[in-house]
Design brief:
Number of domains: 2
Strand content: 15-25%
Distance between the termini: 43 Å
Largest sheet: 7 strands, mixed
CATH superfamily of the largest domain: Alkaline phosphatase D (PhoD)
CATH class of the largest domain: Alpha Beta
Number of strands: 22
Helix content: 10-25%
Bound molecules: fe (ii) ion
Shape: globular
CATH topology of the largest domain: Purple Acid Phosphatase, chain A, domain 2
């Protein structure tokens, strides 16, 4: 009885958001950008990405065609300052302007601001370059799902801003443009896509004014910010989404930019592998047979469902993991990896009574067992140690030490959305998926992963709520 009751609850949680969307909650913060008086020269930004020990890429969108450069200094008063190259913004790129600077000092805090047509703008932001040494203790933060569907309050962002994070990973559903402005099918045009990025960077929203103003960011789109709910590689306009990401976000070098946004970067003795789980994904619907049961055909892939030119993402991930000499390897996935969800997928009661529950699960890695096995085998066959999975998407937070998730996994995805409490609900239904706990309060949360070197070497996986309290934690020792 309890089980069936719980399964009903789960139905609500896994259901496609469009079915349970409450227009009163819609896009409270998803407004077009309006420049404040003191920043009337800037429409979006500035902020910084693609940071390494010696380089960084700044981005800003001036209000109009302008000459753009950035001023940098090690102190906030900009004494002893220096400048990046100056470029003229490009109207074909909607004036979004990215400028890379090299030859910075490692492990150094820099203040920066945009200079537009010789006018020094007033938004002074800061970041710290990555260290040159390997054994450097640090933390990064991550999360997903914000500024749109189910958004409540932005109370978490000042907490993230005060944390001592070396950077933040936004791993998807950074606004829900398919639900609001510009609406379904928005990636049919670059004009609409550009609006989605302006909305994302809305400076009246504290993620931008408080978090991105003081740390570097890396970003991966998930379904809603790629093309729409549960979107996959069959999307007709996916090349527009790729183009927009490249024009409007300061990403790391993409290894096959015509086909996807997969990329990697390194911080100290940790290497990060950022996956694109949308552009190369086989259609989720292919996984279901005529009877509505889960039966994915051979080759059904979340990493490489299409024949493409150049290195495909599956090969890239294999080569990248095999060739990495970093002590820790963090795989960044926009959707949950934990293969234990397969149990629920194979549950015929769920398949027959709640097809929408099933639809939610086939969108996770669990819908792609061939790729799960592939990744497991790479790790096992090559004796690769210290792999951590970081994931988002489900509007809640959880940790598993690898007992269920195979790879130790921390998932956190309720930055400002309502907590779906999926961990609690799946437990009620009899599926014990996250053995280090789930976050089941009515709050918001982000993930923090810290690395410690010395006599004891370990990674700390934590989920932090909007009061700054650690609500879940797991210590993963160096193997
Ligand atoms: Fe989401």
């Amino acid at each position: 009885m309890i089980r069936i009751f719980a399964v009903c609850f789960i139905l609500l949680s896994f259901t496609s958001p469009s079915n349970s969307f409450n227009s009163n909650e819609e896009s409270k913060f998803n407004q077009n950008v309006i420049a404040t008086a003191e920043d009337e020269l800037i429409q979006s930004g500035p902020f910084v990405g693609a940071v390494s020990d010696v380089s960084a890429t700044f981005i800003v969108k001036p209000m109009k065609l302008s000459k753009v450069k950035f001023q940098l200094s090690e102190d906030s008063s900009f004494s002893n300052s220096f400048y990046t190259d100056e470029v003229v913004s490009d109207e074909n790129k909607f004036n979004f302007t990215k400028i890379q600077i090299n030859e910075l000092k490692p492990g150094t805090k820099y203040f920066y601001r945009a200079v537009l047509d010789e006018n020094t703008t007033e938004r002074v932001h800061s970041f710290k370059t990555f260290p040159s040494e390997k054994n450097y203790n640090f933390s990064f933060g991550f999360g997903s799902c914000q500024q749109g569907y189910g958004a409540t309050t932005p109370d978490l962002f000042p907490v993230i801003a005060k944390d001592s994070l070396s950077f933040f990973l936004q791993i998807g559903d950074w606004t829900y443009p398919d639900f609001g402005n510009p609406g379904k099918g928005y990636n049919e045009s670059l004009d609409k896509l550009e609006l989605t990025y302006r909305n994302r960077y809305d400076y009246s929203y504290p993620f931008n004014s408080e978090v991105l103003s003081r740390m570097p960011i890396a970003y991966l789109y998930d379904d809603h910010d790629f093309a729409g709910n549960d979107a996959d590689g069959t999307n007709a306009f996916k090349s527009n989404s790729l183009k927009a990401y490249d024009m409007f976000f300061p990403h790391y070098k993409m290894d096959n930019p015509d086909n996807g946004i997969w990329q990697k970067f390194r911080f100290g003795d940790v290497e990060f592998f950022l996956l694109d789980l949308r552009t190369q994904r086989s259609a989720n619907s292919n996984a279901m047979n005529a009877q509505g049961l889960f039966e994915p055909p051979s080759g059904h892939s979340i990493l490489n469902g299409f024949t493409i030119d150049g290195e495909n993402q599956k090969k890239w991930l294999e080569n990248s993991l095999k060739n990495s000499d970093a002590k820790w390897k963090v795989i960044v996935s926009t959707v949950i990896f934990n293969p234990r969800y397969l149990d629920a997928l194979k549950d015929e009661r769920i398949a027959q009574m709640f097809p929408k529950v099933q639809k939610g699960i086939v969108d996770k890695w669990a819908g792609f067992p061939e790729d799960i096995e592939f990744l497991q085998n790479i790790i096992k066959d090559n004796n690769i140690k210290n792999v951590i999975m970081v994931s988002g998407d489900s509007h809640s937070s959880y940790i598993d030490d690898g007992t269920n998730s195979v790879i130790p996994e921390i998932s956190s995805s309720n930055l400002d959305t309502k907590n779906s409490k999926l961990g609690f609900l799946t437990q009620l239904a009899g599926y014990d998926i996250w053995n280090q706990g789930s976050y089941n309060e009515d709050g918001h949360a982000y993930g923090r992963v810290s690395f410690y070197y010395g006599s004891e070497e370990y990674a700390m996986l934590e989920v932090i709520d909007q009061t700054g309290a650690v609500v879940l934690s797991y210590r993963l020792n160096d193997q």
